[in-house]
Amino acid sequence: MKSLKHSCLWSLICIINSAFGFLFALSHGFSQIPMQFGILVFLIFFTLFPRTQRYKTIKDNSILFRSLIIGYIINSILIPAHFLIGAFSVDIISTGSLTLSNSSNISLATTNFIETFLITITMGLLLNVMALIISAFIYSIQKISIKIFCGQNIYNTQQ
Questions:
Q1: What are the structural domain ranges in the chain?
Q2: DSSP secondary structure string, 59-105?
Q3: Hey, how many other C-beta atoms are within 10 angstroms of the C-beta on 73?
Q4: Which one of 53, 55, 68, 125 has the fewest beta carbons within 10 angstroms of its own beta carbon?
């Protein structure tokens, strides 16, 4: 039951994070279907990840788990950063896919589908990296605070 609760939590976080990029891309004329497939890839990952042993290890470390939740929520709130990362990934993938479409016999519709799907995956990966960096910063603040205020060993993983 807890696994289902955590799957729902991470799926909700995934949907919130992807909503801003999805709306931004729609306003710039990107196709919905490849974006939905890209978001589905992340939803599947975030639904299945809470069922792994690695996740159980993370969940048992309350400071690490709390840091991840806070980091992903803060990442969801940083809307301007989503737009910057989205524009950056659109430029990278668009340049690469123009080269791909010019050098091969792939149809324009297929190229557009692949391009939009890869942009969605790239943006999602960059947003997750950004959330992990925020989580690492929050984790370090919590560990240092415990050391200062509680006098505990900051390298103890059972906290």
A1: 2-150
A2: HHSHHHHHHHHHHHHHHHH-HHHHHHHHHHHHHHHHHHHHHHHHHS-
A3: 14
A4: 53
Per-residue b/e over 134-149, b at no fewer than 16 CB within 10 Å? bbeebbeebbeebeee
Q: How would you class 93 by CB atoms within 10 Å of its CB: exposed for 0-12, middle for 13-18, buried for 19 or more? A: buried
And the tokens for 119?
């942009």
Q: Which residues contact 67 (CB under 8 A, 6 or more apart)?
A: 135, 136, 138, 139, 142
- Which of 129, 133, 136, 124 lies closest to 45, judged by CA? 124
Q: Per the structure block, which two tokens stand in for 6?
A: 């955590």
Cα 8 from Cα 47, distance rounded (Å): 7
Nearest to 43 by CA among 122, 121, 142: 121
> What pTM does this model have?
0.71
